[in-house]
Design a protein that fits this description.
Elements: H1 5-32, H2 43-48, E1 53-58, H3 66-75, E2 78-81, H4 87-90, H5 100-111, E3 115-123, H6 129-132, H7 136-153, E4 160-165, H8 178-183, H9 187-198, E5 203-208, H10 216-231, E6 237-240, E7 243-245, H11 253-261, E8 266-275, H12 278-293, E9 298-303, H13 329-340
Parallel strand pairs: 1-2, 1-9, 2-3, 3-4, 4-5, 5-6, 6-8, 7-8, 8-9
Bound molecules: ligand G3I.
Ligand G3I is lined by residues 82-83, 125-126, 165, 209, 241, 271, 312.
Length: 341
């Protein structure tokens, strides 16, 4: 299957128009609220002023908790499913799709005018058992069938998909997952082509962690983007997960984002969290937010959860709201950085 340039152009125009429209609305909002500062009192509204989103990873089972859902709808303008759109959740048996959790999040987002990021179509982790036993062409067919089923179901409703997640090692080599060992190097581009066919309007991202500067892993991903562009493989964006701790070395964080942006892909901060507390934690959040705001093609930031109490690394208290949904020092640092841009 070859890339369709007309589809890709439409996606780019659609994305550009959305940002322009959001910036226009933000400008109207700034005029409307001049003097009250209301438009810049939440993370989502502040990010929207520069045409960006500020999102959170969400688990549908917590939405019944008032603090959780109120904080989500008041503070954020983008949602990503923390687990509900992954392969094990959406296709637990071959060809038997289950979209209940993801559909719930999409409906909530649409009700509140939020974007939805898609996470993630193909990953070595959280594969259902039936996939883990497949080899060769059967695994390839399962992968493309899964992408067609999930991206097709959500067609037109996802701003950007993490098509492939975490396919590289720290030294820049390919991770020796079942996908890599069974399918060889071509599986990543095959996944992107399948996603493009299933949802021509979604931006298509490669997403990874430990890419928080110019290093062997981020350079391998950079080289892959260059190669994809040269050969017409559809790719629109790169996600930087940004799981950090206090004292993180961010000396080349912005430079790294910028070198990808200079290739003509969007960059997104996709899973931000920072282990730590107080001003040390706030400093890291501020630096990441400023870096995104300084890069024109950094389209938004997603934090990997709302409250420390439900974080995957909860004992490190890495998020912007504590267990009682109280704003932390890091929250104010992020809000200030968004408003300063
Ligand atoms: O759903 C079951 C539940 O039925 C059961 O009672 C419970 C018992 O432990 O487990 C539940 O599943 C867990 C699921 O989170 C939902 O809480 C899984 O065991 C657990 O493995 C899973 O962890 C998720 C992890 O990805 C899996 O690798 C985390 O929530 C999620 O935050 C994390 O997210 C990843 C990104 O997708 C990719 N980047 C790294 C990031 C952090 O690991």
């Amino acid at each position: 299957m070859t890339d369709n340039p007309v589809r890709r152009l439409r996606r780019r125009i659609t994305a550009a128009a959305a940002v322009t429209a959001a910036a226009g609305l933000a400008a109207v909002g700034a005029l409307t609220f001049a003097g009250s500062a209301s438009a810049a009192d939440t993370l989502g509204a502040s990010a929207a002023e520069s045409g960006r989103y500020f999102g959170a990873a969400i688990a549908p089972n917590f939405l019944g908790e008032e603090g959780y859902s109120n904080t989500l709808t008041s503070e954020f303008n983008s949602i990503v499913a923390e687990n509900a759109m992954k392969w094990d959740a959406t296709e637990p048996s071959r060809g038997q799709f289950s979209f209940s959790g993801g559909d719930q999040l999409v409906a909530l987002a649409q009700e509140h005018g939020m974007e939805v990021r898609g996470h993630t179509l193909v990953w070595h982790a959280q594969q259902p058992g039936w996939v883990q036993g497949l080899a060769g062409q059967a695994l390839h067919d399962a992968m493309t069938g899964h992408i067609a089923g999930v991206a097709g179901h959500y067609q037109g409703q996802i701003s950007s998909w993490d098509v492939v997640n975490e396919a590289f090692e720290g030294d820049g080599s390919r991770r020796q997952s079942n996908l890599q060992t069974q399918l060889g190097d071509g599986w990543i581009e095959d996944a992107f082509r399948a996603a493009d066919a299933a949802d021509p309007d979604a931006k298509l991202c490669y997403n990874d962690y430990s890419t928080d500067g110019i290093n062997a892993k981020s350079t391998a991903i950079y080289d892959m983007v260059v190669d994809f562009q040269a050969r017409g493989v559809p790719i629109d964006c790169v996600g930087f997960q940004t799981h950090l701790s206090t004292g993180a070395d961010l000396s080349s964080y912005q430079e790294n984002l910028q070198r990808f942006a200079d290739l003509g892909v969007d960059v997104e901060i996709t899973e931000l969290d920072v282990g730590g507390s107080g001003s040390a934690q706030a400093d890291v959040y501020r630096a990441v937010t400023e870096a995104c705001m300084n890069v024109d093609r950094c389209t938004g930031i997603t934090v990997w959860g709302i409250t420390d109490k439900y974080s995957w690394r909860g004992e490190e208290t890495p998020l912007l709201f504590d267990g009682n949904y109280q704003k932390k020092e890091a929250y104010q640092a992020v809000l200030d950085a968004l408003n300063a841009a």
